[in-house]
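Continuing the batch. This is chain 6 of the set; chains 1 through 5 are on the previous pages. Same settings as before, nothing changed between runs. Recording input and output for traceability.
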Amino acid sequence: MNYLPLLLAALLCTPALLADEQRRSSIPESDKGMVVPVSEDTSFGMIVKARINGQDLRLMVDTGASFCFLSEAATKRLGLLPQKEIDAIAASGRRVGLKTGLMKRLELGGLVIENELVGINTALPEGFAGVIDGVLGLSSMKDFDVRFHHPERTLTFWKAGKAPRLEEEMELPLTVLELRGQIQGQQAFGCVVEASIMGKPVPFLLDTGSVGNSVSVPQPLFTELFPDLAKTAGIKTFAGRDFAGVVASSEVRLPEFKFAGETLKDFKIELIPSKEKYGLLGQLLLNHYILTFDFQAKVLRAKSLGTVGELTQRSSIGLTFDLRGGDFFVGSLTPGGPCEKAGLKVGDKLLTVEGKEWKSLDDKAFYALVHLPPGTPIKVRYQRGNEPIAEVVLVLVKN
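Output for chain 6:
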């Protein structure tokens, strides 16, 4: 399920782009923390309800984004005026022009941030229209301790250094990357931890906005670190996406991958055409942990839920999605995969799977589908252009 990893991994910024407004943040004092419910519809990531300049918006929580981004439509509704344009770098390494403005007031429960930087992401894919209004980036979290608890559908904030410890937590050094300059005195940054591939440490950016991915590594970095594996692993190329558009990505199976005390064998990861020197840990992996970010101490505390092994047991239907106006289309096909063998083509509109509408599937329903055993037949109804609606039967294969 590789539809739309936003992967806003890094930003190329220049200083003093916005008006000189003082940024302020506050949160109520509480030992239990301030709990923000996450929407049940998490097919698009962890979505929270925020209030910006007095209006309610739905934002996807994205630790891979340096700061907040709003869709162009949401920005117009709020009456925010773009002030400057900066160069943004997508996970693929491509640069895109990004307009920026300033939010006077951002409220998330009892958390309040004034004069917060916002990017106006005119390239936000069409399929997100009506689902989210933008993303909540690290700049809105960095003043606090933040805990992600996916099974409970909660995001909890404490004052810096106040989040209580959990039993059996593993503490990992958190490298706060300062990413090429600052805007309005706010440093653009990302959070990096170490995982290991075949016993070799590799830095990874924590990216909850990578909603359809588990682990990604820049292909040049992978080839540099594992030249022999890169030659013999049978890398397959397909068309993936980042927020700048379609990019050519690849996938490879690893003999061993380790993160936060858990080991995965025969584990498939994505290789992306980025020149960065770190990989990305996406939502599909991070959902198997309770994660507490202590930005002040530069520590990530991770408690395994004991379910990460499910990632090696998933089945595959062999496609990526293209989202348009809330509908699902075939974005790309895995060569020789179930969808290609069944006769689906890029651009086909996906209507139902096993009698359920594609756009009605939340992450629970989709995970239930991909955890069916390899060899399971799946009925899919689709439409190609203006042709009559058709049905095919896919046979799941090991992911």
